[in-house]
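pinned: reference chain
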Amino acid sequence: MHLASNRISDEGSQYLANALSNNSVLTTLNLTGNQIEGQGVQYFANALSNNTTLTTLDLHFNQIGDQGAQHLANVLQNNTTLMTLDIHWNQIGELGAQHLANALRNNSTLHKLVLIYVNHISSTLLDELQKNDDRIA
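pinned: its C-alpha cells
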C-alpha cells in the first residue's frame, strides 16, 4: 500500500496502526513523507508486535528521530516478519542508530535497514555499524 506524502502525522498513524495490528493481507506499507514523528512510530511499533504479514515498511523522509528509532529497535528484537525497513532522512542521531544496531543482534529476519542517508550519524559510527552488519545500508 502506497500512502506517501499524505500528511498522515502522528494522529493518522494511530488509526493506520490499529488497522495494521489486525491485518492479515498487507505485506508492504510505504509512508514516505507523512510528517510522522516519534509518537506515530510508537503506534506502528506496537502494531508490528502483533502483525505477522508486513515484510516491508518504508518510513523515510519523516521526523521519527532517536525516539522513533528506539521504538522500532524494541519491536525488531522480537519481530519475525519484517524484512526491509527504510528509515533514512529521519533526523536519527547516534543514540537511535545504536539502539537499532543493538536490536539487529537479536533479529535474523530483517535483511535490509536503510538508515545511512541524511540522518545525524557520524561517519565513524556508520562505518562501524556497516562493518559489523552488512544489512545496514
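why pinned: The two ends are 23 Å apart (CA to CA). The chain has one domain: 9-14+21-132.
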